[in-house]
Amino acid sequence: MPRLSPDRLKTVFPVLDWGRSYDRAQFTGDMTAAVIVTIMLIPQSLAYALLAGLPAEVGLYASILPLVFYAIFGTSRALAVGPVAVVSLMTASALAPLGLDSLAEYTAAAAVLALLSGLVLLAMGILRLGVVANFLSHPVIAGFITASGILIASSQMKHILGVKAHGHTLPQILGSIWEQLPHTNWPTLIIGLIALAFLFWVRKGMAGVLKSRFGMSAQAASTTARVGPVFAVIGTTVAAWALDLPGAGVSVVGTVPTGLPPLGLPAIDFGMITVLIGPAILISIIGYVESVSVAQTLAAKRKQRIEPNQELIALGASNISSGLSGGYPVTGGFARSVVNFDAGAETPAAGAFTAVGLLLAALMLTPLLYFLPKATLAATIIVAVLSLVDLSILTRAWSYSKADFAAVLATIVLTLGIGVEVGVATGVLVSLALFVWKTSRPHVAEVGQVPGSQHFRNIHRHQVITEPTILTLRIDESLYFANARRMEDLIQARVHKGRDQLKHVILMCSAVNEVDLSALESLEAINQRLSDQGVKLHLSEVKGPVMDRLKGSHFLHDLTGQVFLSQYDAFVTLRQAEQEADTGKSAA
Amino acid sequence: MPRLSPDRLKTVFPVLDWGRSYDRAQFTGDMTAAVIVTIMLIPQSLAYALLAGLPAEVGLYASILPLVFYAIFGTSRALAVGPVAVVSLMTASALAPLGLDSLAEYTAAAAVLALLSGLVLLAMGILRLGVVANFLSHPVIAGFITASGILIASSQMKHILGVKAHGHTLPQILGSIWEQLPHTNWPTLIIGLIALAFLFWVRKGMAGVLKSRFGMSAQAASTTARVGPVFAVIGTTVAAWALDLPGAGVSVVGTVPTGLPPLGLPAIDFGMITVLIGPAILISIIGYVESVSVAQTLAAKRKQRIEPNQELIALGASNISSGLSGGYPVTGGFARSVVNFDAGAETPAAGAFTAVGLLLAALMLTPLLYFLPKATLAATIIVAVLSLVDLSILTRAWSYSKADFAAVLATIVLTLGIGVEVGVATGVLVSLALFVWKTSRPHVAEVGQVPGSQHFRNIHRHQVITEPTILTLRIDESLYFANARRMEDLIQARVHKGRDQLKHVILMCSAVNEVDLSALESLEAINQRLSDQGVKLHLSEVKGPVMDRLKGSHFLHDLTGQVFLSQYDAFVTLRQAEQEADTGKSAA
After folding, report:
1. Nearest chain B Cα to A135, which residue?
2. Inter-helix orientation angle B24-51/B138-161, to 10°
3. What is the mean pLDDT of residues B408-430?
């Protein structure tokens, strides 16, 4: 076993780094941030638990230990970990196929999902597989988040209308709500619409009013606006109690058990694991991507650094702790992290203090939540997720590249129409397939010398110097099996195109980053065929790593021409040789 | 509907091209070739039918109409279409999951498979999807053919031993034969070993003896050796009849129905199609690759051209005709096409004449096949397929590239261990995954000016000129989602590495063949981050197609530096600017 040096320990436990120099100023910043984030998180965590189909208290449980464990292992100073909208949606979608009727079993399965997701993240971190997340392209993520936002907002419509509806795809959800529309509960709808209107105003107009009417600073106004949803919670709860709205058919949160989160391993059976492991992997990757991009954005603002593989370990530990304390999958959330950062969090201790705040809430506030209408929580979710919906990615992708557009369109349509897992997986596969397809049909340019320079460019785009005895083709792709045969045909076709004086073909390899075994055989075939036609094959600007590989084969030995360091060398040398040959002929 | 011009008609029916100028010399050549190929094909087609688990006559049927249809639609002058070893193995493997007990049903299913495969090929030809075959890399094909050869040879061992054995994977086959070893039928083994020894001698020594002892020309000797297997057929058949070997437990072909192939649609049911369509696609692609590479090899020798998409149509028509005439999947075979070519076939008419020969055989010779021992046919197959086995692809791939080696090893191991379909599909996926993985971890070189030239190369491989104020990075890969984030980190790391005087970063884009939307956002982030550090970002040698795309975005507008046509321009311009700035400072 390798000795654990202090530096190595600090890498695994970043808390040992910042904890050592922790001071009063940092404590004040962290404490202020923790109070604000706690107030913000209480309604949010209840709402996201509802979205995942779980009892409200599970949202609180999932916000306590994960924050503590992230504070120990995480490398971001401001990231706040807990239930988030997209992961809650994915949790609901992952648990649906289990077909569990009892809420207790469903809750236990959510904890198992968190545990699995934590183990996946931990394994990825230990194996340093953070790069896997790079295969989620930006358009796929953007499309997925947008589609998830639409799905979530529409799934919450039932709580605003006070009806029972179901479904996991947009057509199912909308169809189900449409059918139930006649059963709308009017008091619920009124509460819901008031909450929605208030929350939209909190988001858009409140900070401005606080500044202009009450003379608050911009910072204070924006922070107060962030905790605004709490006023909606208090207002509608009081209204529901005072007006006996439950008697009028308004759904409220009801009894929320008071006490500490239940600690211990949830009931696990093997069949459940085989169903959940796929979704757990997807939740891990999506959660990781979301969390790391938030962490990186915030770190860049203070010139701090994030260690991606350590983040995997931290998120892994957070999810495992969530699974062991009656929670469900968690990750770093955007809104709460920004609030934490803006409110002055200096170190991960802010997260630990927030955890204490939420623990107190779980111990003492839950009786007060009895009359909280579910419509208010739904309104909180709708307002939060509508900011995720950004269909402009479609127009941006369309105008930039049709391949990116295809990937984002496939992701959005399939996420809405079939489900989150199929949507994101198809997006990744479509992106990869289009990339491979493009590399299988490479661009090949005939190039000539840019006058007065040693630089060679496309004869169709630039005024360049060429020679009738020399054909230079710049191959704009690595040579590998998917394009090797095509390259053979293409070179053959260009050589045939009425070039009687042709003596030399130069392949300019500045863009050839690899030559695999299939392509090597194609190069050998090209060399042979050109040789049969009395034309020599040369290479120029072959890169070091490619040249190393070619040296290990017979090809360089069989090559009829030479390998030149630069295209300019090749052009000048061959032109001179041809001129000398001509002079020799006319002198003879 | 587009008018069919004579040229267009000739493209679809190449027979209209060569048929018009058909003359007596061509007829003589074609006729000679047809006689030789017919003699060679009779035992071969019976043997391959046996390999596919079909009655012997199905092999003959599959050799008649397909030859005629290929003669009408094909573009190769010498390709001979019919049952081949690998496709016969794949047919057996495709039909096994149907679990058919009756031989009649099994034979009908083989015809359905041919029909499906024909339709797939036809569709690929019409949609011009011949390029799909390029995704089968050379190492994957080589590995697959080698593994198939081993599987086929071991599956035929049971006929040589005269035992009943089963299985579709190498461990199953060998295990089954090992169990049955005590039941070896000695007369069968003796016949089998004699046939094997004779056939090996025919292949290796016969031509030499015919030349030296009998004074034959090299051409005549090698052609006679090609029809050598017929002597084994005749010899062992006579021996089986004279010695009453069936009475001693030697399996013989038995009654082969005499007459024309049955014409008409085989019995098709939908459930069968869903099982067979996947294997049909794989058989189509493998058959097409095998056929086209044979056709191209032969065409190159006579400077003729093959039209790949028309070949798909011709093979499609051949397979459909095979399915409609009681046959099974066919493709262009290597050995028979070479014999056809060597024996002087001038046009596809040779194939049509061969078809007539085989038709006559089906009408008249079948009673003579009663006493033909199955051991002889198995020996024919074993000798034929052992020439396909070439394990040297493993060592060649290992010494050239570990990625190619991984693909070929996966293909061989899984083809032998699980089956042909899994083997070849995994080979393709492994090849693609390794390619994508490599492009996600690109090589990035810091470059400097090669003295006395305008050429820039890796500072670690060449003696080059650099400037402390300028860092030039050559990125050896297209920029896309899988490597965009990595590139951000990498550039950041290089910039950090103790460069206090750094003012300019130049990204040399000569190897960047694409910049997708994810990479564009990474470039924007890099530009922003460098700008925060007081460093300008420049690009050089951006290719036309990439530049076109960047012009459609905001990036060029936000770029802190410039885009230079050549790296030399960039280096000279920025160095001069920095020198002027320095002179200005010291003057002030």
Report:
1. B482
2. 70
3. 91
Alpha-carbon separation of residue A355 from A64, A388, B553 (angstroms): 5, 26, 44
| Interface touch A516/B440, C-beta < 8 Å | no
Q: How far apart are CA A81 and CA A104, in angstroms?
A: 25
What sign does the CA torsion over A471, A477, A480, A483 have?
A: negative
Task: Give the nearest partner residue to A513 out of B135, B300, B443, using CB atoms.
Answer: B443
The position carrying tokens 């692809």 is B393
Q: Is it true that domain B444-587 has CATH number 3.30.750.24? A: yes
Q: How far apart are CA B295 and CA B66, in angstroms?
A: 16
What residues of chain B lie within 8 A of the CB of A488, using their CB? none
Is the pLDDT confidence value at A1 over 50? Answer: no
Cβ neighbours, 10 Å, residue A3? 5
The amino acid occupying position B303 is: K
SS3 state at A75? coil
Burial of B573 (0-12, 13-18, 19+ CB in 10 A): middle
- Which DSSP helix (H) or strand (E) runs through B496? helix B481-496
- Please state the ipTM of this predicted complex: 0.81
- Write out the E strands in A79-198: 81-82
Domain ranges of chain A: 6-412, 444-587
CA distance B321 to B118: 8
Residue among A167, A130, A162 nearest A152 (CA): A167
Q: Which of A442, A481, A549 sits opposite B400 (nearest CB)?
A: A549
In this predicted model, what pLDDT tens digit does every residue of A546-577 receive, in sequence order? 999 999 888 999 999 999 989 999 999 999 98
The size of the A-B interface in CB pairs under 8 A is: 182
Q: How many CB atoms lie within 10 A of CB A569?
A: 17
Question: Which candidate in A307, A400, A462 is best for mutational testing of the B interface (most B CBs within 10 A)?
Answer: A400
